[in-house]
Design goal:
Helices cover 53% and strands 17% of the residues. The protein contains 11 helices and 8 strands. It has an 8-stranded parallel barrel with strand order 1-2-3-4-5-6-7-8, surrounded by 7 helices. Helix 1 runs parallel beside helix 3 (39-49), helix 4 crosses helix 5 (88-99) and helix 6 packs parallel to helix 8. The longest helix is centred in the C-terminal third of the chain and has 17 residues, at 196-212. It binds erythose-4-phosphate (E4P).
């Protein structure tokens, strides 16, 4: 399972990259706005931190505009993945951009049928949004499972990028189903290490070790 950081905050991305566990980054217009940075500048900085795919999202609503913006964003670095929304125009843009050999991430996916269209249009990644489905009392994980089944049925190579991840349970559940990638805020990825029994066990080991008076180094 690949880990992408869902953020445009440079410090957070650097911290995760230093662990060697970071495989890529996803951004969106809201995350760029939150960073307060210029999209091209901050995206170029991110691309220097990781050589994995870095998703940069188009904002045009027509296919022609998305294609033009996608080509412009792709000039930033070789590892740019052009992110387009799952609209009819987004699908058309995906087909053209992927046909040019560019990586495309089709985002805002909320149904299996949408995921089929993205795969047929040659998407590198499909981004089903788990948390936002949970928010409206649906089960985002059902969507991941449906897409996994459908893609496996037909041998589609589009990678399932589980997005809108809000908790560590989302990550384990997506892994059980076989999502190829998860994108999550770095704080959620860091929480994966937490377990009270690990903390309790370590305290006991250290207390017993102290009693021996030994040192390893
Ligand atoms: C994915 O690419 C999106 O940027 C992101 O996961 C959306 O998450 P949210 O629903 O928490 O905003």
């Amino acid at each position: 399972m690949k880990f992408f950081a869902d953020t445009a905050e440079i410090d957070e991305i650097k911290e995760l990259a230093e662990t060697g566990l970071l495989d890529g980054v996803t951004t969106n217009p809201s995350l760029i706005a939150k960073s307060g940075r210029d999209i091209k500048e901050v995206t170029a900085e991110i691309c220097k931190i990781t050589d994995g795919p870095v998703s940069a999202e188009t904002v045009a609503t027509d296919a022609e505009g998305m294609i033009a913006e996608g080509r412009e964003l792709a000039k930033i670095a070789d590892n740019i993945t052009i992110k387009v929304p799952l609209t009819w125009d987004g699908i058309k843009a995906c087909k053209v951009l992927s046909g040019e050999g560019r990586m495309v991430n089709v985002t805002l996916c909320f149904s299996p049928n949408q995921a089929i269209l993205a795969a047929k249009a040659g998407a590198t990644f499909i981004s089903p949004f788990i948390g936002r489905l949970d928010d409206i009392n649906l089960d985002g994980m059902d969507l991941i499972a449906d897409i996994r089944t459908i893609y496996d049925n037909y041998g589609f190579e589009t990678q399932i990028l589980a997005a809108s991840i809000r908790s560590v349970n989302h990550i384990a559940d997506a892994a059980r189903i076989g999502a190829d990638v998860i994108t999550a805020p770095p704080a959620v990825i860091k929480k994966m290490v937490d377990h009270p029994l690990t903390d309790k066990g370590l305290s006991a080991f250290l207390a017993d070790w102290k009693k021996t008076g030994q040192s390893i180094l």
